[in-house]
Amino acid sequence: MERLRLKSSYLISRVPLNFSRSITSRIDWNDRLIGILGARGLGKTTLLLQQIRTKHGFNPHALYISMDDLEFAGASLLSFAAEFCNKGGTHLYIDEVHKYPKWSQELKTIYDTLPDLKVVFAGASTIDILKHYANLSKRATIYTLQGLSFREYLELHDITSLPALSLDTLIQDHQSIALELTDDFKPSVHFNKYLTMGYYPFDCSDYEEFKRNLENSIGQTVESDMAYMEGYDSRNAHKIKKLLNAIAQSVPFKPNLVKISETIGVHRNTLINYFFHLEKASLIQMLYPSGSAISILQKPEMVYLNNPNMAQILPRVAPDRYSLVCTFVSSVLGSNGQLKITERGFFDFEGKWQFAVQDAKSKKRRKPRGKDVISLSDGIEMGSQRTIPLWMLGLVTNHSIP
Fold it and tell me: For residue 11, which phi and psi values (nearest 5 degrees)?
């Protein structure tokens, strides 16, 4: 226990406090059991440590632990929590929870038997929360941590502070909002850098370092985090990487399952499972046709990489601008609700809005039709009634909860 206290205090003392993720203010920290899920590299550990530092300081009643610590290799989380509680502990922050085999069952028991202990746990997006959630559905509140929004990126780098918007507010009031914001702020240069290396909160001095960090994060996701997914065979990691590489070279990617099966060397049904594994790990996003139901063996209509930074860095040849900004749009909208794709290639959000992406560098722009179709236009600072500047989508607050 003492060794873990010392390690916790050391990590808490080193966590930066100059910037915190916007999700922090949306979490009800008074809940007795809170889960925070997200892909590797997005700042889950920092979020936990910041909360301890700001709410508890170095008070021993709050403790940070990680399930990849050797201390828990053969130990019981339940027994540890009981001991911590008996010694006056009131708040336990558990990181890398997916690396502990019985995490959901023991968290349920902790909740039921230690009513004076509040627990916050963080884990990889690869956790199949629906299968574990049956034990925790009446107990835990689950949040999903996404990458930095454009708004958060600007704040992190001390460029400017912009308001967080709901999608409905953006659609209704984007003209007046843009008029006010662009009076002393020029978004174009900053937005381009965000698309290249702004989604991940890596502390990097240059592009090459950022690229190495991202490639390392993806590699560890495939080789380590995905190993905890039910039905995933870690011996097939090389085939998963091969599939991800094939997707990266062709996005937006309309999959030809027969051709890909031959290239990867797996059966069609196995290939579909690989797609689901990659999406669960927050490495890709699959879109299905508007109006269709989604089944486990259904072929996706279109596949995107998870975010624009991946779309810039993973391909051997830099993507065209239209593909890049479409990846940005799918990343933002897909993390806020159900996103599908229409026959004309528009993004269909929740069956309520259709978005047509207009690329500033392309001479051919898809003209939207219909009262519920909105243009997201790259390369402009101000829009018109049905045309929203693309960069403003980066102000939308994420509300993704599994």
Answer: -65, -40
- 288-326 pLDDT tens trace: 999 776 655 678 899 999 999 999 999 988 889 999 999
User: Which residue, among 38, 153, 224, 163, has the nearest Cα to 47 in the 3D structure?
Assistant: 38
Per-residue pLDDT tens digits for 61-88: 999 999 999 989 888 999 999 999 999 9
3 state DSSP class of 42: coil
Angle of CA points 115, 106, 117, to nearest 5°: 25
DSSP secondary structure code for residue 300 in this structure: P
Helices (H), 28-145: 44-55, 77-86, 103-113, 129-136
Residues for the chain: how many in total? 402
**Which contiguous run of DSSP H or E holds residue 257?**
helix 257-264
Residue 203 makes CB contacts below 8 A (sequence gap 6+) with none
State the pTM of this model.
0.91
Structural domains of the chain, with CATH: 2-145 (3.40.50.300), 150-395 (no CATH)
State the Cα–Cα distance between residues 157 and 19, nearest whole angstrom.
9
Q: Do 201 and 42 touch, CB atoms closer than 8 A?
A: yes
Neighbours of 86 (CB within 10 A): 9
Q: Which of 69, 174, 145, 116 is nearest to 402 (CA)?
A: 145
